[in-house]
U6 snRNA-associated Sm-like protein LSm8
Amino acid sequence: MATTTGLESLVDQIISVITNDGRNIVGVLKGFDQATNIILDESHERVFSTKCHLFNRILRNVSQIFIHNILLWFSLSECVGVLRVLIYQEGVQQLVLGLYIIRGDNIGVIGELDEELDASLDFSKLRAHPLKPVVH
């Protein structure tokens, strides 16, 4: 008796995969097998976060400083100043993976991606809690 996974119609289309450890991987489905191991091309992982950082630093006659790879310029008089900056992360980070294989036993959900809707999203403004891993 032959079994099918229902993925035949999604080959060469962009899909979104949620793994059991809570990762969201998007890419073009290139192939799969009977164990639902899948091959994605042009893939990337979307890393969601709600984190922001509050940075305090006492400064003496400094005109620039790097905080989390962001260069801040400012001017201070001869007195001591306190710099307090609230830094928000860029929203959803997209980490390029390229050609990527995901084992079937690590897949939680596979879904079709609406390319038009996905292209209209501004990922720099999205904030969300990361998904928690599946607990058995």
Remarks:
- The first helix runs from residue 115 to 120.
- Residues 72 and 103 are 44 Å apart (CA to CA).
- The chain has one helix and nine strands.
